[in-house]
């Protein structure tokens, strides 16, 4: 009888050890797989920015964002946090009414946002030659970009980040 109990106890102990080992291995595999598939959100410091003047839609600034070397991240499909000065009336408002798709940045892959500095049809506005820009939610790390030419700013708008520059034309009105 004693050998039967010992054999049964040994089998239970082996089964328990095997179950724990399998669970640990499955958890480690799932964790490794989830890390390899997960791309983190971009912070302003993860990116380099360039701004160009475009002539479509009455003229606007096309902002190009690229990930720095060795960085892979995504930009949320929302408009960038940007302003031409420190006054609230120079902050950009959204040009689009919905959130777009996230744009994954890595290597030469870029994201684009269009900023129209003046959406009013009058001669009013303030003059600026710089744009303060950050990824939405990361305003403490804003960068300052020199504009290709001085902008007259009055009720500025910005598109969401897009993978295609043709989708980043800020049509107003």
Question: How do the helices and strands line up, and which of them pair or pack?
Answer:
Elements: H1 2-37, E1 40-41, E2 47-54, E3 60-67, E4 73-77, E5 81-83, E6 93-94, E7 100-105, E8 110-116, E9 126-134, E10 143-153, E11 157-158
Parallel strand pairs: 1-4, 6-11
Antiparallel strand pairs: 2-3, 3-8, 4-7, 5-9, 8-11, 9-10
Q: Using DSSP, what is the number of strands?
A: 11
* End-to-end C-alpha gap: 90 Å
Q: Low-confidence segments, ≥5 residues, pLDDT <50?
A: 1-36
Strand content: 35-45%
| Rg over CA atoms | 26 Å
Helical segment count: 1
Q: Strand order of the main beta sheet, please?
A: 2-3-8-11-6
Class of secondary structure makeup: alpha+beta
Helix content: 10-25%
Mean pLDDT: 83
Largest sheet: 5 strands, mixed
* Strand/helix succession: HEEEEEEEEEEE
Which outline best applies? globular
Q: Would you mind describing this structure in some detail?
A:
- This protein is globular.
- 21% of the residues lie in helices and 36% in strands.
- By secondary structure, it is of the alpha+beta class.
